[in-house]
């Protein structure tokens, strides 16, 4: 399968996208916000669920913690692999009820210059820039067409909700630790949700269980860590997300200094 690359404007870039399909193996050297590129997934036997001797099984307990965590304000930090020997890292805060997010993303490796982007969204106002010190660029999301390169969906910007929906079998490995598989077959998640926090990989699989995860919760029932491994014929992509500050004020507000995006962004 040949590669498909579509570069976005750097001032409004979001993340790199990779399409995972069985039977295809190519990779992209494009910066954040590129169109999908294909790598193949491998099948592996999923672990069986491990019910607790007394009380709910591991999957029920973990899903309850994930639901609790995704519906409140939280901070996140991510790091992980991207095809072509690249690395992605990021951090930010998200307030789902107020519809606000602040995030920084950085792509390095692959023999290319590092690419970074910063984004703040307050309701339907998006502010973007590449690095500290630059003037923010403002976009009115209400005027952006859904199929535009510059559209931004605040339904699930961190991918945590789609992660919850993809959880398959779960095994309890300790008092607050879990492992399991992600059900990513049949293109249900080709909008992308990994790594959680800074989605950078569009996941589409025609079969198999090529994605596994481990998760950790704290005594208060918040999810504090999610680690995902995606297998393909070239190796395994590893990515880690840590969550903190659950339920605390996000502090997200629009920048005090910004310029307006040019009209062609709304075409």
Automatic annotation (TrEMBL):
Keywords: Signal. Gene3D superfamilies: 2.50.20.20. Residues 26-47 have a biased composition (Low complexity). The keyword Signal applies. Residues 26-57 are annotated as: Disordered. Transmembrane segments: none annotated. PROSITE patterns: PROKAR_LIPOPROTEIN (PS51257). Residues 1-29 form the signal peptide. This is Lipoprotein LprG. It comes from Actinoplanes xinjiangensis. The lineage of its organism: Bacteria, Bacillati, Actinomycetota, Actinomycetes, Micromonosporales.
């Amino acid at each position: 399968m040949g590669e498909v690359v579509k570069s976005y404007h750097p001032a409004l870039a979001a993340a790199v996208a990779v399409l995972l399909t069985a039977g295809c193996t190519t990779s992209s050297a494009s910066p954040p916000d590129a169109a999908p590129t294909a790598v193949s997934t491998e099948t592996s036997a999923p672990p069986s669920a491990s019910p607790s001797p007394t009380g709910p099984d591991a999957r029920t307990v973990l899903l309850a913690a994930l639901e609790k965590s995704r519906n409140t304000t939280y901070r996140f930090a991510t790091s992980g692999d991207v095809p072509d020997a690249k690395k992605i890292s990021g951090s930010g805060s998200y307030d789902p009820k107020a519809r606000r997010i602040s995030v920084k993303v950085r792509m390095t490796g692959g023999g290319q210059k590092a690419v970074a982007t910063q984004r703040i969204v307050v309701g339907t106002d998006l502010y973007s820039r590449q690095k500290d010190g630059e003037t923010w660029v403002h976009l009115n999301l209400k005027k952006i067409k859904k199929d535009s390169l510059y559209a931004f969906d605040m339904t699930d910007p961190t991918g945590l909700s789609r992660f919850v929906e993809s959880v398959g079998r779960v095994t309890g490995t300790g008092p607050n630790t879990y492992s399991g598989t992600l059900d990513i077959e049949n293109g249900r998640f080709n909008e992308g949700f990994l790594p959680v926090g800074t989605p950078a990989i569009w996941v589409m699989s025609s079969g198999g269980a090529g994605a596994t995860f481990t998760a950790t919760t704290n005594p208060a029932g918040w999810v504090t860590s999610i680690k995902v491994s995606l297998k393909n014929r070239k190796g395994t992509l590893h990515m880690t997300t840590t969550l903190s500050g659950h339920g605390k004020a996000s502090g997200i507000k629009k920048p005090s200094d910004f310029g307006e995006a040019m009209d062609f962004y709304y075409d």
